[in-house]
Design brief:
This protein is α/β, with parallel strands linked by helices and 633 residues long. The protein contains 17 helices and 23 strands. Helix content is 29%, strand content 22%.
């Protein structure tokens, strides 16, 4: 028999499994069929199906060579790598805006890579396939690490599946799909945008998947007054190869690539429109994340590169298409800035090497066609021609402290021609370079370069924005978090000193676990949405006006008489602390009319001993049950 659990209980189970790597030797399914935890011991593989009629997979229970217990799931007769077991999230009762945790043990018949992936259909009916986690099996069992994911309400037909590199037989065991613990944001800390309201905009970069959880939305609304779409407006996501080829075949015109706004971009832009958040556009012209077919004669990956004149026409058509698309669908969003050209310089300020980036990482097809960086000025001309009048245009680059003179010279030239409004300094920084206590750049190096940029900006009347700020540290270095705290303090002090020339500071992400450099925890908030020491380093000792609170969250002050049967965390007063207490408290705080808590229960509910009863106590109870924390006396 399968045992049934409430989904909140499964959330705690997921957290415990993440810490202890406990194998799952018996089938467990959550209440209402919304979560699945199984070791296939009962021979039931009915939750899994092959991926459509053309998937030749045969999915069955198997009693040989399991990872744990006596059984596993076999996936044989796969004819292609994408064939494999799939689970419909709708069938399990999964909901948008909720974070889930998935893991499994897999074994391939021979040396092979395999992936846990997600598939969905966007609002336009376009199917998307994204890898969530990848591992390599050498013919033995390997664990797909506990992976967090979520999806948005606009995503339909959402499923997760396991695929391989080729058609090798696949075996799966100890599969777990659970609801992740819900961590509300800290509402009693300063909002970054409020602290720096008299300095500059404070923004963040997000992807559609990253923005899906409700807590991430809350974090953005509290701390940011600008958003950058992390990937969704890049050329690879805006260019429409199918539409381009159809137009080319119909007209013979090889100078007019087609542009379309994708569903993932709409998820973020709809959120920005709803909450009146200005957007920083990223990016129009870039050597990377631009499909090679955009540069070729017949719009195919293997075609010859076009000549300079053809490429200029394509560039103009693309830039016009992007602005037309956004102006038509989102005329009410303030696109206050756009990165027109991104990362065109090597360290030292010279052009990138010519080539196809798909073949030689870091090389530029733009340089291959133009011979140098002469494509930059036309890009700004076209952007100025088609961008809204209030949109500022920027050249954006990383390792900017190694390109100071070249970037300043470019800015002065283009600004004098009325084409450029400012420079974007990415500021991807490292607190512990090469796993040593020595940062790169040092605070002094960064501040020196920033001072030069800002002096030139003041003299020549152009703007500076910090566009992709994060600062990593290696966990192997002693006191890494303290070093990060001190480093952020120095970096933001250098930035704040130049506030008259800097109009925006954008952090590249929201929480550490969602960062593109997540293994080195580079951001201000951890995976539980809790502010890290580096957050306080850049917010303490800054005078600011606290905005009026508009939150509707319920907070109860616990000043009740002492309960002789007091047990911290025992909200339902059954003399035990379990997940039902967290569920009851969460419902009570959400003003669920059917959730009743006695006076004694309210006193017990102060799980973190701060003399208040709020969402932090729900988080504390779950953390204690998952053995992540201990309950105070």
């Amino acid at each position: 028999m399968k045992r049934r659990y409430h989904k909140a209980a499964a959330a705690v189970l997921g957290a415990v499994l993440a810490m202890q790597s406990i194998p799952l030797t018996s089938g467990v399914q959550a209440a209402e069929g919304d979560l699945l935890v199984t070791g296939f011991e009962d021979g039931d593989v009915s939750a899994f199906s092959k991926r459509g009629d053309s998937d030749t997979s045969v999915i069955a229970a198997c009693t040989t060579d399991s990872h744990s217990g006596d059984s596993c799931m076999s996936v044989t007769e796969r004819s292609q790598g994408w064939n494999g077991p799939s689970i419909s999230l709708a069938d399990l009762g999964c909901e948008p805006g909720v974070q889930y945790l998935a893991t499994a043990w897999v074994k391939m018949k021979w040396y092979n890579s395999c992936a846990l992936s997600i598939q969905y259909t966007d609002a336009e009916g376009v199917d998307h396939y994204d890898n969530l986690a990848k591992v390599t099996s050498d013919g033995s069992w390997v664990q797909i690490p506990l992976t967090k994911f979520s999806f948005d309400a606009s995503m339909k037909n959402v499923s997760i599946y396991i695929e391989g590199q080729d058609s090798a037989d696949m075996f799966v065991d100890d599969f777990s799909l659970t609801t992740a613990p819900v961590y509300p944001i800290e509402t009693d800390i300063p909002g970054l945008k409020d602290v720096y309201a008299d300095y500059f905009k404070i923004g963040g970069a997000v992807t559609a998947a990253e923005l899906s959880p409700n807590s991430t939305k809350d974090l953005v609304l509290k701390h940011y007054n600008s958003l950058t779409l992390g990937n969704e407006l890049k050329p690879e996501n805006m260019l429409d190869q199918k539409g381009t080829l159809e137009y080319y075949e119909e007209t013979g015109d090889n100078t007019t690539p087609k542009v379309r706004l994708n569903g993932r971009a709409r998820i973020i832009l709809d959120f920005c429109r709803e909450h009146d958040i200005p957007v920083r556009g990223h990016v129009l012209v870039w050597y990377s994340q631009t499909p090679i077919w955009f540069f070729t004669e017949d719009y195919t990956e293997k075609g010859e590169l076009v000549d300079k004149d053809t490429m200029l026409k394509r560039m103009e058509a693309y830039i016009k298409g992007v602005f037309d698309c956004l102006n038509e669908e989102y005329p009410d969003i303030d696109f206050y800035a756009w990165d027109v050209v991104n990362e065109a310089m090597k360290d030292g300020g010279t052009p990138r090497d010519p080539g196809k980036n798909e073949n030689y990482n870091g090389t530029s097809a733009w340089v291959k066609i133009f011979g140098d960086n002469s494509f930059i000025e036309p890009a700004f001309k076209y952007a100025r021609k088609y961008a809204p009048a209030n949109t500022k245009l920027y050249y954006n680059d990383f390792n900017e402290y190694m390109k100071v003179d070249a970037m300043i010279d470019l800015a002065k030239d283009l600004h004098s021609k009325g084409l450029l409004d400012g420079l974007g300094l990415q500021s991807h920084l490292d607190v512990t370079n090469n796993s040593t206590p020595d940062p790169f750049p040092t605070v002094q190096q960064y501040a020196y370069a920033l001072d030069k940029f800002c002096a030139a900006a003041k003299e020549n009347d152009f703007d500076i924005q910090i566009t992709e700020l994060d600062a990593t540290y290696a966990h192997s270095v002693a006191n890494g978090e303290k070093l990060q705290e001190q480093y952020y303090d120095g970096i933001m002090e250098a930035i704040a000193k130049n506030k008259d020339q800097i109009s925006a500071v954008v952090f590249w992400g929201t929480t550490d676990d969602q960062s593109w450099r997540s293994d080195r925890t580079p951001l201000l908030f951890d995976e539980t949405y809790k502010a890290k020491p580096c957050f306080y380093a850049i917010t303490d000792n800054i005078d600011y006006v606290e905005p009026k609170q508009t939150t509707t969250s319920k907070v109860t002050t616990t000043t009740l008489p002492q309960n002789k049967d007091f047990l911290r965390g025992d909200v339902n007063c059954d003399k035990d602390v379990d997940v039902s207490d967290a569920v009851l408290l969460a419902r009570f705080l959400a003003e669920d009319s059917e959730a009743t808590v006695t006076d004694a229960g309210l006193l017990n509910a102060d799980a973190n001993a701060d003399k208040k009863t709020d969402q932090k106590d729900v988080t504390k109870i779950l953390a204690v049950l998952a053995k992540l924390e201990t309950m105070p006396e």
